[in-house]
Design a protein that fits this description.
By secondary structure, the protein is α+β, with helices and mostly antiparallel strands. It is built from five helices and ten strands; from the N terminus they run H-H-E-H-E-H-E-E-E-E-E-E-E-H-E. It has one domain. Helices cover about 30% and strands about 30% of the residues.
Length: about 240
């Protein structure tokens, strides 16, 4: 659940819906995408600096639309400039916990923390300047890494378990900066997008071939994690 005590978030809650609505109107879409694209690149460069100066440096890597834009189009995707995804291995939870205060100090705001049905930390979401930062935690499954996605469909919340190939990390240059990315990249894109070579307006992240199991999600999204998320002996936040 969102941190509604933050005034900036309340202001964004008023401004964001009409701003997003304009993006769906053909006459305004190109204009909004251009504005959002410039904001997106600035925020990514600021985020890169924050990560480089944090304990998470060397413990995250590109995922999702930013990785696809880099590898397929050689640019940020103009229609996918509303969020940015990164993967973080379970073994780096301590670094993630130590980095969260630095992200807040850099202007990111708390949004929501997701745990799967087994109580594993799955995703931390923050927001800044109409852009979501999604930090997905991955878990080793012996040759593949597991992560979880969540979505409400027909009034029912679902969780999907995703398995992607486990690969080393390589540095790539994108928007003038060096980012960590899977090595090789193509298997990761194929597992997530299928036929990734061409844009697919009907692509649905809850129906990709990398999903090994979809089930009803029985846990509510829990509030902001504390540093103890790095302590595997502690119960998930909100439970005792």
């Amino acid at each position: 659940m969102a941190d509604t005590s933050d005034r900036r978030l309340r202001l964004e809650a008023i401004i964001f819906p009409p701003y997003l609505l304009l993006n769906r109107i053909p006459g305004f879409r190109q204009w909004i995408n251009r504005i959002q694209g410039r904001r997106y690149e600035r925020v990514l460069k600021e985020l890169h600096t924050t990560f480089a100066e944090s304990p998470l440096n060397g413990h995250y890597r590109l995922s999702g639309g930013m990785l696809l834009g880099y590898y397929r189009d050689g640019r940020l995707l103009p229609w996918d400039c509303w969020d940015v995804d990164f993967e973080i291995e379970e073994s780096s939870l301590a670094e993630l916990a130590a980095t969260l205060p630095l992200l807040l100090k850099a202007g990111w705001r708390r949004r929501v923390t997701w745990f799967n049905n087994d109580g594993d930390l799955a995703e931390i979401r923050l927001k800044r300047k109409f852009i979501y930062l999604d930090l997905f935690v991955t878990y080793d499954r012996g040759g593949s890494s597991a992560s979880w996605l969540f979505s409400e469909r027909d009034g029912v919340w679902l969780q999907a378990e995703v398995h992607l190939p486990t690969t080393p990390t390589q540095p790539v240059e994108f928007i003038g900066l060096i980012w960590p990315a899977p090595d090789p990249i193509e298997p990761a894109l194929e597992a997530r997008y299928g036929q990734w070579q061409e844009p697919d307006s009907k692509w649905d992240y809850m129906t990709t071939s990398s999903i090994v199991k979809t089930e009803r999600w029985t846990r509510p999204p829990l509030s902001w994690p504390e540093a103890r998320l790095a302590d595997r002996s502690s119960p998930p936040l909100g439970e005792s």
